Amino acid sequence: MSVAFSTPAEHAFVDEDSTQPPVRSTTTPSAVALQFPDELLYASVAVFRAIQTAIQGKAQAYVLGDSTHGSCCPDVLSCLHLPADLLVHYGHACLTPTDALPVFYVFPRQHLDVIQAAERLIATSRRESQERKGTIVVWDVSFDWLAESIVQVFTTRMSGPVSFSFIQKPVFDTERVSSRRTGKAPALRLIEPPPGTPREECVIFYIGQEGRSLVNLQMTNADCSVLAYSPTSGSANLVSPAASKLLSRRLYAVHRAMAADVFGLVVSNIGLAASPCVLDQLRRDLKTARKKSYTMSVGRLNPAKLANFAPIDCFVLIGCNEGGVVESKDYMAPIVTPWELRLALSGAKEWTPSNWTTDLSTILQRNQNDLSLDLEADDQPQFSLINGEYRTPKMIDTDKHSGHREDLENNEVALRISNLSIATTHPTGSQYLASRQYKGLDPRYGLDEPASLEEGLQGIARGYNGERSAF
Protein backbone atom coordinates (compact mmCIF):
# COMPACT_ATOMS: atom_id res chain seq x y z
CA MET A 1 0.00 0.00 0.00
CA SER A 2 1.38 3.39 -0.93
CA VAL A 3 0.16 6.79 0.15
CA ALA A 4 1.82 9.88 -1.27
CA PHE A 5 1.09 13.40 -0.18
CA SER A 6 2.38 16.78 -1.29
CA THR A 7 2.34 20.38 -0.17
CA PRO A 8 0.91 22.96 -2.58
CA ALA A 9 4.00 25.19 -2.27
CA GLU A 10 6.92 22.83 -2.47
CA HIS A 11 5.26 19.68 -3.84
CA ALA A 12 7.23 17.60 -1.37
CA PHE A 13 6.10 14.02 -1.03
CA VAL A 14 7.14 10.93 0.89
CA ASP A 15 6.18 7.29 0.61
CA GLU A 16 5.21 5.61 3.86
CA ASP A 17 6.17 2.21 2.37
CA SER A 18 9.76 3.10 3.27
CA THR A 19 8.81 3.20 6.94
CA GLN A 20 7.35 -0.29 7.04
CA PRO A 21 10.61 -2.33 6.94
CA PRO A 22 12.05 -0.84 10.16
CA VAL A 23 8.69 -1.17 11.89
CA ARG A 24 8.48 -4.84 10.96
CA SER A 25 12.11 -5.59 11.73
CA THR A 26 12.19 -3.99 15.19
CA THR A 27 12.33 -6.63 17.91
CA THR A 28 8.93 -6.91 19.61
CA PRO A 29 7.95 -3.22 19.42
CA SER A 30 5.20 -2.03 21.70
CA ALA A 31 4.92 1.60 20.59
CA VAL A 32 6.00 3.38 17.41
CA ALA A 33 6.17 7.20 17.38
CA LEU A 34 5.55 9.06 14.11
CA GLN A 35 6.99 12.60 14.33
CA PHE A 36 5.67 15.14 11.82
CA PRO A 37 6.63 18.81 11.36
CA ASP A 38 3.86 21.39 11.23
CA GLU A 39 3.90 21.61 7.42
CA LEU A 40 3.29 17.84 7.06
CA LEU A 41 1.00 17.29 10.00
CA TYR A 42 -2.09 17.31 7.76
CA ALA A 43 -0.95 14.00 6.21
CA SER A 44 -0.34 12.25 9.53
CA VAL A 45 -3.74 10.55 9.58
CA ALA A 46 -3.21 8.76 6.25
CA VAL A 47 0.30 7.68 7.20
CA PHE A 48 -0.83 6.58 10.66
CA ARG A 49 -3.54 4.32 9.21
CA ALA A 50 -1.14 2.82 6.68
CA ILE A 51 1.50 2.12 9.35
CA GLN A 52 -1.04 0.71 11.77
CA THR A 53 -2.28 -1.64 9.06
CA ALA A 54 1.27 -2.70 8.18
CA ILE A 55 2.23 -3.70 11.72
CA GLN A 56 -1.04 -5.69 12.01
CA GLY A 57 -1.76 -4.83 15.62
CA LYS A 58 1.64 -5.97 16.93
CA ALA A 59 2.38 -2.44 18.13
CA GLN A 60 0.58 0.84 18.68
CA ALA A 61 1.50 3.87 16.59
CA TYR A 62 1.35 7.43 17.92
CA VAL A 63 1.55 10.73 16.05
CA LEU A 64 3.84 13.39 17.53
CA GLY A 65 3.21 17.01 16.63
CA ASP A 66 4.46 20.30 18.07
CA SER A 67 7.86 18.89 18.99
CA THR A 68 9.48 19.80 22.29
CA HIS A 69 12.42 21.47 20.57
CA GLY A 70 12.98 22.03 16.86
CA SER A 71 11.22 19.86 14.31
CA CYS A 72 14.57 19.02 12.68
CA CYS A 73 15.60 16.91 15.71
CA PRO A 74 14.06 13.64 16.92
CA ASP A 75 11.73 14.42 19.83
CA VAL A 76 13.29 11.96 22.24
CA LEU A 77 11.63 13.49 25.30
CA SER A 78 8.11 12.84 23.97
CA CYS A 79 9.12 9.31 22.99
CA LEU A 80 10.33 8.60 26.50
CA HIS A 81 6.98 9.74 27.87
CA LEU A 82 5.08 7.17 25.78
CA PRO A 83 7.48 5.21 25.97
CA ALA A 84 8.24 4.35 22.34
CA ASP A 85 10.54 1.64 21.00
CA LEU A 86 11.00 3.25 17.58
CA LEU A 87 10.77 6.79 16.23
CA VAL A 88 10.01 7.53 12.59
CA HIS A 89 11.00 11.12 11.79
CA TYR A 90 9.30 12.77 8.80
CA GLY A 91 10.38 15.95 7.04
CA HIS A 92 13.56 18.00 7.13
CA ALA A 93 16.25 16.75 9.52
CA CYS A 94 19.48 18.26 10.85
CA LEU A 95 21.11 14.78 10.98
CA THR A 96 22.60 15.28 14.44
CA PRO A 97 23.43 11.81 15.85
CA THR A 98 21.18 10.49 18.61
CA ASP A 99 21.24 7.11 20.30
CA ALA A 100 18.52 7.32 22.95
CA LEU A 101 16.31 5.07 20.82
CA PRO A 102 16.17 3.80 17.21
CA VAL A 103 15.36 6.62 14.77
CA PHE A 104 14.39 6.12 11.14
CA TYR A 105 14.34 9.16 8.85
CA VAL A 106 11.83 9.66 6.05
CA PHE A 107 12.88 12.70 4.03
CA PRO A 108 10.53 14.73 1.83
CA ARG A 109 11.02 14.22 -1.88
CA GLN A 110 11.21 17.33 -4.02
CA HIS A 111 11.55 17.40 -7.79
CA LEU A 112 14.88 18.51 -9.25
CA ASP A 113 16.31 18.94 -12.74
CA VAL A 114 19.74 17.50 -11.97
CA ILE A 115 21.23 18.36 -15.38
CA GLN A 116 20.12 21.99 -15.12
CA ALA A 117 21.48 22.24 -11.57
CA ALA A 118 24.90 20.94 -12.64
CA GLU A 119 25.11 23.22 -15.68
CA ARG A 120 24.08 26.36 -13.74
CA LEU A 121 26.53 25.69 -10.88
CA ILE A 122 29.46 25.01 -13.21
CA ALA A 123 28.69 28.09 -15.33
CA THR A 124 28.38 30.31 -12.24
CA SER A 125 31.66 28.96 -10.89
CA ARG A 126 33.45 29.93 -14.10
CA ARG A 127 31.75 33.33 -14.28
CA GLU A 128 32.64 34.19 -10.67
CA SER A 129 36.20 32.89 -11.15
CA GLN A 130 35.65 30.39 -8.36
CA GLU A 131 37.18 27.39 -10.06
CA ARG A 132 39.32 25.50 -7.55
CA LYS A 133 41.34 22.30 -7.46
CA GLY A 134 38.43 20.29 -6.06
CA THR A 135 34.65 20.40 -5.70
CA ILE A 136 32.34 19.24 -2.90
CA VAL A 137 28.70 18.64 -3.84
CA VAL A 138 26.13 18.94 -1.03
CA TRP A 139 22.38 18.66 -1.39
CA ASP A 140 19.38 19.19 0.85
CA VAL A 141 17.84 16.11 2.46
CA SER A 142 14.75 16.53 0.28
CA PHE A 143 16.88 15.60 -2.77
CA ASP A 144 18.55 12.58 -1.21
CA TRP A 145 16.29 10.25 -3.17
CA LEU A 146 18.09 11.58 -6.30
CA ALA A 147 21.60 10.94 -4.90
CA GLU A 148 22.54 8.43 -7.60
CA SER A 149 21.49 10.80 -10.38
CA ILE A 150 23.39 13.70 -8.79
CA VAL A 151 26.58 11.65 -8.56
CA GLN A 152 26.28 10.43 -12.14
CA VAL A 153 25.57 13.85 -13.69
CA PHE A 154 28.22 15.82 -11.77
CA THR A 155 30.87 13.14 -12.28
CA THR A 156 30.45 13.23 -16.07
CA ARG A 157 30.43 17.06 -16.25
CA MET A 158 33.22 17.89 -13.79
CA SER A 159 36.80 17.78 -15.04
CA GLY A 160 38.60 18.00 -11.68
CA PRO A 161 38.31 15.87 -8.53
CA VAL A 162 34.87 15.93 -6.91
CA SER A 163 33.46 14.47 -3.69
CA PHE A 164 29.85 13.99 -2.62
CA SER A 165 28.34 14.43 0.83
CA PHE A 166 26.25 11.29 1.21
CA ILE A 167 23.71 10.81 3.97
CA GLN A 168 24.18 7.68 6.05
CA LYS A 169 21.00 6.32 7.56
CA PRO A 170 21.51 5.58 11.29
CA VAL A 171 21.93 2.00 12.45
CA PHE A 172 20.99 1.26 16.06
CA ASP A 173 22.39 -1.83 17.73
CA THR A 174 23.67 -2.93 21.11
CA GLU A 175 27.27 -1.99 20.26
CA ARG A 176 26.30 1.67 20.05
CA VAL A 177 24.82 1.88 23.53
CA SER A 178 28.22 2.69 25.04
CA SER A 179 28.74 5.58 22.60
CA ARG A 180 26.56 7.78 24.80
CA ARG A 181 29.26 7.77 27.45
CA THR A 182 32.01 8.84 25.05
CA GLY A 183 29.98 11.03 22.69
CA LYS A 184 31.61 9.34 19.68
CA ALA A 185 28.43 8.44 17.83
CA PRO A 186 28.98 8.02 14.08
CA ALA A 187 28.16 11.09 12.01
CA LEU A 188 25.21 10.79 9.65
CA ARG A 189 26.79 13.13 7.10
CA LEU A 190 30.36 14.20 6.43
CA ILE A 191 31.47 17.04 4.18
CA GLU A 192 34.95 16.02 3.14
CA PRO A 193 37.13 17.28 0.26
CA PRO A 194 38.34 14.92 -2.49
CA PRO A 195 41.31 12.76 -1.47
CA GLY A 196 44.58 14.67 -1.67
CA THR A 197 42.92 18.09 -1.99
CA PRO A 198 43.01 20.63 0.88
CA ARG A 199 39.60 21.88 1.97
CA GLU A 200 40.52 25.56 1.49
CA GLU A 201 41.26 24.84 -2.19
CA CYS A 202 37.77 23.45 -2.85
CA VAL A 203 34.51 25.05 -3.95
CA ILE A 204 31.23 23.80 -2.47
CA PHE A 205 28.15 23.31 -4.65
CA TYR A 206 24.92 23.36 -2.62
CA ILE A 207 21.57 22.26 -4.05
CA GLY A 208 18.61 23.53 -2.07
CA GLN A 209 16.67 26.54 -0.89
CA GLU A 210 17.98 29.23 1.42
CA GLY A 211 17.63 28.32 5.06
CA ARG A 212 19.43 27.30 8.20
CA SER A 213 21.17 24.41 6.42
CA LEU A 214 22.80 26.75 3.90
CA VAL A 215 23.73 29.30 6.58
CA ASN A 216 25.34 26.61 8.71
CA LEU A 217 27.24 25.31 5.66
CA GLN A 218 28.61 28.79 4.96
CA MET A 219 29.72 29.41 8.53
CA THR A 220 31.39 26.03 9.03
CA ASN A 221 33.26 26.34 5.73
CA ALA A 222 34.33 29.98 5.82
CA ASP A 223 37.58 29.19 3.99
CA CYS A 224 35.71 27.77 0.97
CA SER A 225 33.68 29.39 -1.78
CA VAL A 226 30.02 28.30 -1.60
CA LEU A 227 27.71 28.39 -4.63
CA ALA A 228 24.03 27.63 -4.08
CA TYR A 229 21.49 26.48 -6.67
CA SER A 230 17.81 27.21 -5.99
CA PRO A 231 15.47 24.65 -7.60
CA THR A 232 12.57 27.13 -7.34
CA SER A 233 14.18 29.95 -9.32
CA GLY A 234 16.57 27.77 -11.30
CA SER A 235 19.49 30.13 -10.63
CA ALA A 236 22.89 29.67 -9.00
CA ASN A 237 24.64 32.35 -6.97
CA LEU A 238 27.81 32.86 -4.96
CA VAL A 239 26.76 33.07 -1.29
CA SER A 240 30.05 32.64 0.58
CA PRO A 241 30.75 36.41 1.09
CA ALA A 242 27.84 36.55 3.57
CA ALA A 243 29.69 34.16 5.89
CA SER A 244 32.12 36.86 7.06
CA LYS A 245 29.25 39.04 8.25
CA LEU A 246 27.62 36.14 10.06
CA LEU A 247 30.86 35.18 11.78
CA SER A 248 31.40 38.81 12.82
CA ARG A 249 28.17 38.59 14.78
CA ARG A 250 29.39 35.44 16.46
CA LEU A 251 32.67 37.14 17.40
CA TYR A 252 30.63 39.93 19.00
CA ALA A 253 28.79 37.30 21.07
CA VAL A 254 32.14 35.80 22.12
CA HIS A 255 33.34 39.15 23.45
CA ARG A 256 30.12 39.56 25.42
CA ALA A 257 30.66 36.10 26.89
CA MET A 258 34.18 37.11 27.94
CA ALA A 259 32.64 39.72 30.27
CA ALA A 260 30.23 37.24 31.87
CA ASP A 261 30.65 35.73 35.34
CA VAL A 262 27.52 33.53 35.60
CA PHE A 263 26.67 31.12 32.77
CA GLY A 264 23.54 29.12 32.04
CA LEU A 265 24.07 25.80 30.24
CA VAL A 266 20.88 25.23 28.23
CA VAL A 267 20.39 21.64 27.00
CA SER A 268 18.27 21.90 23.88
CA ASN A 269 17.68 18.19 23.25
CA ILE A 270 18.42 15.44 25.76
CA GLY A 271 18.54 12.82 23.01
CA LEU A 272 21.70 14.05 21.26
CA ALA A 273 24.46 11.48 21.54
CA ALA A 274 27.25 13.91 22.44
CA SER A 275 25.30 16.33 24.65
CA PRO A 276 26.08 14.64 28.04
CA CYS A 277 29.82 14.60 27.33
CA VAL A 278 29.81 18.19 26.07
CA LEU A 279 27.86 19.27 29.15
CA ASP A 280 30.39 17.64 31.48
CA GLN A 281 33.26 19.23 29.56
CA LEU A 282 31.72 22.71 29.77
CA ARG A 283 31.19 22.33 33.51
CA ARG A 284 34.84 21.43 33.98
CA ASP A 285 35.98 24.34 31.82
CA LEU A 286 33.87 26.82 33.77
CA LYS A 287 35.07 25.42 37.06
CA THR A 288 38.67 25.74 35.91
CA ALA A 289 38.00 29.36 34.93
CA ARG A 290 36.32 29.92 38.33
CA LYS A 291 32.97 30.85 36.79
CA LYS A 292 29.56 29.96 38.19
CA SER A 293 27.26 27.84 36.01
CA TYR A 294 23.71 26.53 36.11
CA THR A 295 22.24 23.73 33.98
CA MET A 296 18.70 23.98 32.62
CA SER A 297 16.35 22.59 30.00
CA VAL A 298 13.52 24.92 28.96
CA GLY A 299 12.27 23.36 25.71
CA ARG A 300 11.80 25.82 22.85
CA LEU A 301 13.76 29.00 23.48
CA ASN A 302 12.14 32.40 23.50
CA PRO A 303 13.08 35.74 25.09
CA ALA A 304 10.33 35.52 27.73
CA LYS A 305 11.60 32.20 29.11
CA LEU A 306 15.23 33.22 29.42
CA ALA A 307 14.29 36.63 30.85
CA ASN A 308 13.21 34.80 34.02
CA PHE A 309 16.88 33.99 34.71
CA ALA A 310 18.07 37.54 35.31
CA PRO A 311 21.22 36.62 37.32
CA ILE A 312 22.70 34.76 34.33
CA ASP A 313 25.07 36.87 32.29
CA CYS A 314 25.44 34.51 29.31
CA PHE A 315 23.66 31.40 28.03
CA VAL A 316 25.40 28.46 26.34
CA LEU A 317 23.11 26.48 24.03
CA ILE A 318 23.94 22.80 23.62
CA GLY A 319 21.90 22.04 20.52
CA CYS A 320 21.91 20.39 17.13
CA ASN A 321 23.91 21.40 14.07
CA GLU A 322 21.22 23.73 12.75
CA GLY A 323 19.42 24.85 15.91
CA GLY A 324 22.55 25.41 17.98
CA VAL A 325 22.89 29.04 16.87
CA VAL A 326 20.39 31.62 18.10
CA GLU A 327 20.62 35.30 17.27
CA SER A 328 20.47 36.95 20.69
CA LYS A 329 19.27 40.32 19.41
CA ASP A 330 15.92 39.98 21.20
CA TYR A 331 17.35 38.37 24.33
CA MET A 332 18.54 40.14 27.46
CA ALA A 333 21.73 38.03 27.63
CA PRO A 334 23.92 36.68 24.81
CA ILE A 335 23.55 33.07 23.64
CA VAL A 336 26.75 31.35 22.49
CA THR A 337 27.67 27.87 21.31
CA PRO A 338 29.95 25.47 23.24
CA TRP A 339 32.81 26.23 20.85
CA GLU A 340 32.35 29.97 21.34
CA LEU A 341 32.38 29.51 25.12
CA ARG A 342 35.74 27.80 24.85
CA LEU A 343 37.05 30.76 22.88
CA ALA A 344 35.66 33.21 25.44
CA LEU A 345 37.33 31.40 28.34
CA SER A 346 40.67 31.45 26.53
CA GLY A 347 40.40 35.16 25.76
CA ALA A 348 39.50 34.60 22.09
CA LYS A 349 43.17 33.92 21.39
CA GLU A 350 42.29 31.00 19.10
CA TRP A 351 39.68 32.76 16.94
CA THR A 352 39.93 31.37 13.45
CA PRO A 353 36.82 31.67 11.25
CA SER A 354 37.58 28.40 9.45
CA ASN A 355 37.50 26.49 12.77
CA TRP A 356 34.02 27.69 13.76
CA THR A 357 31.67 24.74 14.28
CA THR A 358 28.46 23.64 15.96
CA ASP A 359 29.14 19.91 15.67
CA LEU A 360 29.26 18.50 19.20
CA SER A 361 31.52 15.58 18.26
CA THR A 362 34.07 17.95 16.73
CA ILE A 363 33.95 20.11 19.85
CA LEU A 364 34.73 17.07 22.02
CA GLN A 365 37.74 16.20 19.88
CA ARG A 366 39.10 19.75 19.99
CA ASN A 367 38.46 20.05 23.74
CA GLN A 368 40.96 17.29 24.44
CA ASN A 369 43.55 20.05 24.67
CA ASP A 370 43.31 21.86 28.00
CA LEU A 371 42.29 25.48 28.01
CA SER A 372 45.18 27.92 28.25
CA LEU A 373 43.85 29.95 31.15
CA ASP A 374 46.04 32.54 32.83
CA LEU A 375 44.64 32.34 36.36
CA GLU A 376 47.37 34.58 37.76
CA ALA A 377 46.09 37.49 35.68
CA ASP A 378 42.45 36.96 36.58
CA ASP A 379 42.48 39.70 39.20
CA GLN A 380 43.81 42.24 36.71
CA PRO A 381 41.27 44.60 35.12
CA GLN A 382 40.12 43.44 31.69
CA PHE A 383 39.37 45.80 28.82
CA SER A 384 36.03 45.19 27.11
CA LEU A 385 35.73 45.81 23.38
CA ILE A 386 31.95 46.04 23.78
CA ASN A 387 31.70 49.17 25.92
CA GLY A 388 35.34 50.33 25.95
CA GLU A 389 35.65 50.09 29.73
CA TYR A 390 37.81 48.18 32.18
CA ARG A 391 36.17 45.65 34.48
CA THR A 392 37.37 43.48 37.32
CA PRO A 393 36.17 39.86 36.90
CA LYS A 394 34.50 38.13 39.81
CA MET A 395 36.44 34.99 40.65
CA ILE A 396 34.17 32.39 42.27
CA ASP A 397 35.65 29.85 44.65
CA THR A 398 34.53 26.54 43.10
CA ASP A 399 36.36 24.43 45.66
CA LYS A 400 35.25 25.60 49.09
CA HIS A 401 36.96 22.73 50.85
CA SER A 402 40.44 23.37 49.49
CA GLY A 403 43.13 24.43 51.95
CA HIS A 404 44.34 27.28 49.75
CA ARG A 405 43.38 30.85 50.45
CA GLU A 406 41.55 32.47 47.54
CA ASP A 407 41.68 36.16 46.77
CA LEU A 408 38.89 38.17 48.32
CA GLU A 409 36.11 39.10 45.93
CA ASN A 410 34.23 42.34 45.77
CA ASN A 411 31.70 42.82 48.57
CA GLU A 412 33.44 40.18 50.71
CA VAL A 413 34.29 40.83 54.33
CA ALA A 414 37.49 39.57 55.93
CA LEU A 415 37.12 38.86 59.61
CA ARG A 416 39.95 38.36 62.08
CA ILE A 417 39.48 35.30 64.26
CA SER A 418 41.19 34.70 67.56
CA ASN A 419 43.70 32.30 66.00
CA LEU A 420 44.62 34.94 63.38
CA SER A 421 43.11 32.94 60.53
CA ILE A 422 40.95 34.64 57.92
CA ALA A 423 37.31 33.75 57.29
CA THR A 424 35.50 34.88 54.15
CA THR A 425 31.84 35.89 54.04
CA HIS A 426 30.31 35.72 50.54
CA PRO A 427 27.52 38.06 49.40
CA THR A 428 24.02 36.76 50.11
CA GLY A 429 21.09 36.58 47.73
CA SER A 430 19.43 39.58 49.37
CA GLN A 431 22.52 41.69 48.68
CA TYR A 432 22.35 40.72 45.01
CA LEU A 433 18.67 41.68 44.79
CA ALA A 434 19.44 44.98 46.48
CA SER A 435 22.08 45.73 43.83
CA ARG A 436 19.67 45.28 40.93
CA GLN A 437 18.67 48.45 39.14
CA TYR A 438 15.05 47.44 38.56
CA LYS A 439 13.23 46.51 41.77
CA GLY A 440 9.63 46.50 40.59
CA LEU A 441 6.92 49.02 41.50
CA ASP A 442 7.75 51.76 43.97
CA PRO A 443 6.83 50.37 47.42
CA ARG A 444 7.10 53.82 49.12
CA TYR A 445 8.00 52.28 52.45
CA GLY A 446 8.05 54.93 55.20
CA LEU A 447 7.14 57.73 52.79
CA ASP A 448 3.39 57.93 53.49
CA GLU A 449 1.73 58.47 56.87
CA PRO A 450 -0.43 55.56 58.11
CA ALA A 451 -4.09 56.01 57.24
CA SER A 452 -6.60 56.17 60.07
CA LEU A 453 -9.01 53.27 60.55
CA GLU A 454 -12.54 53.93 59.38
CA GLU A 455 -15.71 51.92 59.80
CA GLY A 456 -16.64 50.09 56.63
CA LEU A 457 -19.95 49.21 55.04
CA GLN A 458 -22.34 46.73 56.60
CA GLY A 459 -24.67 44.39 54.81
CA ILE A 460 -24.46 42.40 51.60
CA ALA A 461 -23.54 43.33 48.05
CA ARG A 462 -27.19 43.47 46.98
CA GLY A 463 -27.73 46.34 49.31
CA TYR A 464 -25.58 47.73 52.11
CA ASN A 465 -27.09 49.33 55.20
CA GLY A 466 -27.76 52.98 54.61
CA GLU A 467 -27.97 52.71 50.81
CA ARG A 468 -31.10 53.67 48.96
CA SER A 469 -32.94 50.90 47.19
CA ALA A 470 -32.75 51.14 43.41
CA PHE A 471 -36.20 49.53 43.03
From TrEMBL:
Gene Ontology CC terms: cytoplasm
Cofactor entry: [4Fe-4S] cluster
Main localisation: cytoplasm
Location relative to the cell: Cytoplasm
GO BP terms: protein histidyl modification to diphthamide
Keyword hit for Metal-binding: yes
Residues forming coiled coils: none
Keyword Metal-binding found: yes
GO molecular-function term, one example from the UniProt record: 2-(3-amino-3-carboxypropyl)histidine synthase activity
NCBIfam families: diphth2_R, DPH2
Function text: Required for the first step of diphthamide biosynthesis, a post-translational modification of histidine which occurs in elongation factor 2. DPH1 and DPH2 transfer a 3-amino-3-carboxypropyl (ACP) group from S-adenosyl-L-methionine (SAM) to a histidine residue, the reaction is assisted by a reduction system comprising DPH3 and a NADH-dependent reductase. Facilitates the reduction of the catalytic iron-sulfur cluster found in the DPH1 subunit.
UniProt family annotation: Belongs to the DPH1/DPH2 family. DPH2 subfamily.
Protein name: 2-(3-amino-3-carboxypropyl)histidine synthase subunit 2
